[in-house]
Amino acid sequence: MDTIAATALSHKNLLGIADLSPEEIVLILDTAEAMKEVGKRAIKKVPTLRGRTVVNLFFEPSTRTRTSFEIAEKRLSADTLNVAIASSSVVKGETLVDTAMNLEAMAPSMMVVRHASSGACHLLSRICKAAIINAGDGMHEHPTQALLDAFTIRERKGRIGGLKVAIFGDLLHSRVLRSNLILLRKLGAEVWVCGPATLLPPGLAAMGVRVTTRIDEAVDQADVVMMLRIQLERMQGGFFPSLREYFRTFGMTEARLKLARPDVTVMHPGPINRGVEIASEVADGPYSVILDQVANGVAVRMAVLYLLAGGADDEAVA
Ligand code: CP
Fold first, then answer.
1. What is the DSSP-derived secondary structure letter of residue 120?
2. pLDDT by residue (tens digit) across 130-150?
3. Distance from the Cα of residue 27 to its chain's centroid
4. Angle (CA) 225 230 233, round 5°
5. Which of 86, 112, 184, 219 is the most exposed place for a label (fewest CB within 10 A)?
């Protein structure tokens, strides 16, 4: 059966990759290519979201996601509002729902939300008129990270289907892993995951993912090596003996990377723990696309904002 190209997203919100069809994922990636062209212009601005207000509501720290959403919103001419949680009434005990409802009263078109609780964005999507974009909820999903990772892989390799993508690190606590697994499997990649047995979440095999605790097996002939951060802030200790031991057993070094394909692509969503999950020589080396991922984050987030706002208007990026 021929695949019918998607021309619009079927959902008002972007809560997770799980809600997107393969065709919708490809639509976002294709749209991001047009948005990347906007970023190469002398005047990096189009009128697509003129007159619309986008609220960035980050209850957890962020460098890449928050700033790239803000740049994306500004390039689309939206009125952007960043809520500084530390100086908001959240510190007086105001709840997530009350905070969102009060912001909603000022009629934003969209809210970009990061929260420590899995499901926080789903909750807001049920009570808000504004479109909700998940910028990372607990250990659940980080959909725009997976989309920018896919965009970067496709840019490097020309495809995603059939590639061996090996993902290493703190698999248990990673919303980036979850979104990437769903996306990569939907687009037909062969996905391997590798980490200490204590950091393997249940249900991986059922997602069609190959699981191993032997790093050499996972990296062998990999097209893409994706390192994930050890999330010390979500650990109470006891997952592995020490950071030094972790690096010795699971850290990505130049020697280990030699087992991958000669044109391997090395990725990391950031922030990096240098010398823990990845050696500096690898993170800064010739195969690394870590800063390309950051740059592509702007284009991908522009595409998501544009498509959720209605999309399908070619003049919007002209
Ligand atoms: N990759 C990522 O989500 O980074 P930030 O936490 O800096 O946004």
1. H
2. 999 999 999 999 999 999 999
3. 16
4. 150
5. 86
| DSSP string computed for 156-190 | HHS--TT-EEEEES--TT-HHHHHHHHHHHHTT-E
Residue 55's H or E segment, with its range, is strand 53-58
What SS3 state is found at 53? strand
Number of residues that make up the chain: 318
For a substitution probing ligand 1, which of 56, 64, 272 has the most ligand atoms within 8 Å of its CB?
64
Is 62 a pocket residue for ligand 1 (Cβ < 6 Å)?
A: yes
Q: What is the mean pLDDT of residues 171-183?
A: 96
Pairwise CA distance, residues 23 & 32, whole Å: 14
For residues 200 and 211, the answer to whether their CB atoms sit within 8 Å is yes
Rg from Cα positions in the chain: 19
Q: How far apart are CA 34 and CA 74, in angstroms?
A: 16
> Residue 53 forms beta bridges with which residues?
79
Sequence-ordered list of residues with C-beta below 8 angstroms from that of 112, at least 6 positions apart, any chain: 54, 55, 56, 57, 58, 69, 133, 135
Is 82's C-beta closer than 6 angstroms to any atom of ligand 1? no
The span from the CA of 93 to the CA of 266, in Å, is 42
Backbone angles phi, psi at 226, to 5 degrees: -115, 115
The CB of 39 under 6 Å from ligand 1? The reply is no
Token pair listed for 44:
């990096």
CB atoms within 10 A of CB 87: 8
Q: Which two tokens stand for residue 72?
A: 């994306």
pLDDT of residue 1: 40
